[in-house]
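Tokens in:
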């Protein structure tokens, strides 16, 4: 069984290079996953894949069952989980089409089922999230970027916002004052739940727009989709390499 799982986000309801073998509907204590967990091969190596927003991209960020998704991946045998993350760029290094492997998160989300310790089972564990991402997997992603000659920004703080609307310019100014470099809607509680489950989790972000107020005019879906298309092949190349190690 593979130990690598990939959670697809916007632009990645499917992994183009994945050779699908089968798909499992996994029962979880938390309800249904976003979609069945797909098992397949990438570059000849077995991986699991789960599209976070559902196979037809119907689930908005605040309605994703993050607990079920991560629990199911662990149940399938995943040990390492890469969360793909379309993001808005806030600080100058994070321009559209940049690939990034952030190393910190600030959580601005609310009202999401964000912990396994919800009072329904005995005990509470206060997991350490000083470094919210798995350094080993961050390193493996960085190495895969180097081997595939894909420029990448290592480090940076990802601000997880509630969505599904984009932010106001003032909200982005606040994120920037807080130290955020990137903004996205799904990084939390995915990262902290992975930690609660003992999974080695890293985010592989790709910037698809300047965040609100960081450029003239409004953010259009067309603009975002154009940048997803620019990033998709490069992200796929890195993941294909990552699958080998
Ligand atoms: N804000 C929040 N999430 C996003 C953005 C953004 O600008 N772009 C892509 N995901």
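Residues out:
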């Amino acid at each position: 069984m593979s130990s690598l799982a990939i959670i697809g986000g916007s632009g990645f309801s499917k992994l183009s290079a994945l050779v699908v073998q089968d798909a499992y509907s996994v029962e979880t204590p938390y309800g249904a996953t976003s979609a069945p967990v797909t098992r397949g091969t990438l570059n000849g190596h077995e991986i699991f894949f789960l599209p976070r927003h559902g196979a037809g991209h119907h689930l908005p960020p605040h309605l994703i069952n993050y607990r079920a998704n991560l629990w199911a991946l662990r149940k399938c045998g995943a040990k390492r989980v890469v969360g793909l993350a379309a993001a808005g760029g806030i600080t100058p290094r994070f321009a559209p089409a940049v690939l990034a492997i952030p190393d910190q998160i600030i959580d601005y989300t609310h009202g999401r089922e964000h912990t396994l310790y919800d009072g329904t089972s005995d005990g509470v564990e206060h997991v350490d999230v000083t470094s919210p991402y798995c350094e080993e997997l961050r390193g493996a992603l960085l190495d895969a970027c180097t081997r595939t000659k894909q420029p990448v920004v290592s480090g940076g703080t990802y601000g997880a916002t509630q969505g599904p609307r984009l932010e106001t310019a003032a909200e982005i100014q606040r994120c920037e004052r807080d130290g955020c470099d990137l903004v996205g809607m799904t990084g939390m509680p995915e990262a902290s739940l992975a930690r609660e489950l003992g999974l080695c989790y890293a985010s592989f972000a790709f910037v698809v727009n300047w965040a609100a107020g960081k450029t003239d005019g409004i953010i259009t879906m067309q603009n975002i989709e154009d940048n997803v298309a620019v990033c998709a092949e490069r992200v796929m190349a890195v993941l294909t390499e990552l699958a080998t190690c």
